[in-house]
Amino acid sequence: ARSQTPTPIMPTYLRRFGKDAAQIVEPVPSDIDVAQAVEPAHITQVASAAGFHPDDVLQHGPHKAKIDIGALKRFPASNKGNYVVVAGITPTPLGEGKSTTTVGLCQALGAHLNKKVITVVRQPSQGPTFGIKGGAAGGGYAQVIPMEEFNLHLTGDIHAITAANNLVSAALDARMFHEATQKDEALYNRLCPADKDGNRRFSPVMLRRLKKLGIAKTDPNELTPEERTSFARLDVDPEKVTWRRVLDTNDRFLRKITVGQNPTEKGMERVTGFDIAVASEIMAVLALTTSLADMRERLGRMVVATDRSDNPVTTDDLGVGGALTVMMKDTIHPTLMQTLEGTPVLVHAGPFANIAHGNSSIVADQIALRAVGNDGYVVTEAGFGADIGMEKFCNIKCRYSGIDPDCAVIVATVRALKMHGGGPPVVAGKPLDHAYKSENVELASRGTCNLVRHIENARGFGIPVVVALNRFATDTEAELAAVKAAALAAGASDCVVCEHHAKGGAGAADLGNAVARVCEEARKGPSTFKFTYPVEQSLKEKIEAIATKIYGASGVSYSALAEEKIALFTKQGFGNLPICMAKTQYSFSHDATLKGAPVGFTLPVNDVRCSAGAGFIYPLIGDMPTIPGLPTRPAYYEIDIDMETGKVLGLS
Question: Pairing relation of β-strands 407-413 and 465-470?
Answer without folding.
Answer: parallel
